[in-house]
Amino acid sequence: MGAGRLRQRCAERKIRQFIVMSAWFIDELRTMNNQIKAVLFDLGETLLDFGKVKATRLFRQGARLSYDFLKSCGQPVGNFEYYCWSNLIALRFRHLISNITKKDINSSALLRGLGTKKGITLDTQQWRDFAWLWYEPLSKIATTEPGIKETLAAVRAVREPPLPLGIVSNTFVNAYSLEKHLKQLGLLDFFTVRMYSYEFDFRKPDARIFKIAAERIGEAVENILYVGDRIDKDIIPALKIGMQPILKAAYTNAGKTPPNGAWKITHLSELPALIKKINAGIHP
Fold this sequence. Notes:
Elements: H1 3-33, E1 38-41, H2 55-72, H3 80-101, H4 107-117, H5 124-141, H6 148-156, E2 165-169, H7 175-184, E3 191-196, H8 207-217, E4 224-228, H9 231-241, E5 244-248, E6 263-265, H10 271-279
Parallel strand pairs: 1-2, 1-4, 2-3, 4-5, 5-6
Helix pairs in contact: 2-3, 2-5, 5-7
């Protein structure tokens, strides 16, 4: 074999080695860039399981609790049935409007406004207690996955420093009531970022709420895992902006397949192992 031919083969071999090493380096770089550094959760049917609820029955229970509270405070509440139905009609009408405008209402502010017009006067803490009593019947039917506190602690401990956790929820329930519920369950302190759609002029699936959540939790979107139960409002928009989404099995997605690029889990307890798998470069 001539010297020129030998040099050519050596050059070709080096080129092949360079291509292989480049591909390996790019793959490693992609894996490093896509490391999970924060986790965001939806609330209903993800962290808290409410199931299919009988909304009117729960509303009447909340109406009774809040009505009795107002009476005990000496407030002019009038007849219970009128109190209940007038609030229900007002809330349903505003909810209908919110579905058109894609902006969730602040139900606490609405009910407070209705009460104020009827001459009800309460201090700040009493209004908070009033709002909680409307929500309390719903809180009593909510369940959480067994061992959820241990699961969330394990998720945070997947890497150092611990992963920050956050909540991004479409809701018209006021923050005080939701966070009182989470505190009762011993979950509140796990979440350094808590965002509720009624606080914004938009809601999921609007990309803006996901981007703000990323800014508040302090990580790039590609380094954030988003866990939710709705394909249309959680998984697809999270995918579109570059987050790594996980569909949590719930009645809201029964029989549905997550889109390409998304994982699916049955229990939150699967998260620590799955995050390690993602951080090792394994893709759905």
